[in-house]
Amino acid sequence: MLMVYTIVFSEIFTSRWGGVQGGKTEFAVVLFVGMIVLNLFSEMLNRAPGLILSNANYVKKVVFPIELLPIIAMGTALFHSCISVGVLLGAFLLFNGYLHWTIIFMPLVLLPLIILTLGVSWTLASLGVFIRDVGQTIVLITTVLMFLSPVFYPVSAVPERLRVFIMANPLTFIIEQARDVLIWGRLPNFLGLGAYTIVALMIAWLGFAWFQKTRKGFSDVL
Fold this sequence. Notes:
The protein is mainly α. The chain has ten helices and no strands.
């Protein structure tokens, strides 16, 4: 898919990033960063509505802290992301002969997104029990988010009148920060990450509270 996206967006749509001089290989590396962040978020959201449904025995027959299911799923998604980051760093080292020391900030960049995603996942896991069509709706939403995120294009390429919609996307800031620390060798925006983390913690708390409030009805519905 990375190969297909690179050909389509660099050759057909002729997307370009400022500062990228290495042709399609460099374009692919920059594109890959956006895909890693997007896939982490999308994988969790797409799985969340079915987490309780696919583990009904834990609800009805076994005493199990089912609020851990989204955390376990996040562990799986993070493992996939770590593998992808390893491939990305290997490709960057191969193409450029060096790595930026700022890559050490990548976990810090992903942390607020992880917190936010867990909060949304708790909510979706609960809703998925009561409203079975939530899963299909989320697939559509994550597809829309893919094109409304700066994965295939830089934010600077978006017209001013539309940029507010791109910036409102929770993935945009994280994708841009990930590119800064992995590709451009810049320090992350610590103030922005701090503000993002505070909002993410609030959403995570609300999502967890909603999950705990509604879990009493899971066994009846299942």
